Amino acid sequence: MLLMKTFRPGDEEVLRTALQEAILQGEEHSLHDFVRKLQWLVEAWPERGMLELLTEAFHHQPCSFCREMLFTIHAEHSDLSSELILEASLDRNMELRGAAEVHLGPATSLDGI
Predict the structure, then answer these.
(1) What is the pTM (predicted TM-score) of this model?
(2) Residue 57 pLDDT > 70
(3) Of 37, 40, 61, 67, which has the fewest CB atoms closer than 10 Å, so is most exposed?
């Protein structure tokens, strides 16, 4: 992937457009592949805009193992929003749920869900 070597802040807007197109196409395999490549880019270039893009991708990633990886990247960069933690705590992936529960604060409640 060319962006691995040439990334510059602002390039995430091109990737955001590509992500939105992949979501609209609705083809799970293509979306999964795109988000995996996006994950590699974020690991190499953990810029604010890229982490925000990763959050958008999290909500559409069809693979629960990959969602766990995305969550881990956010945690490593202290970039976990309460919404992301809450969504992860309800995931079907029990390991992701466990990781999210570690980050649930007293103000976050799952009561009534």
Answers:
(1) 0.83
(2) yes
(3) 40
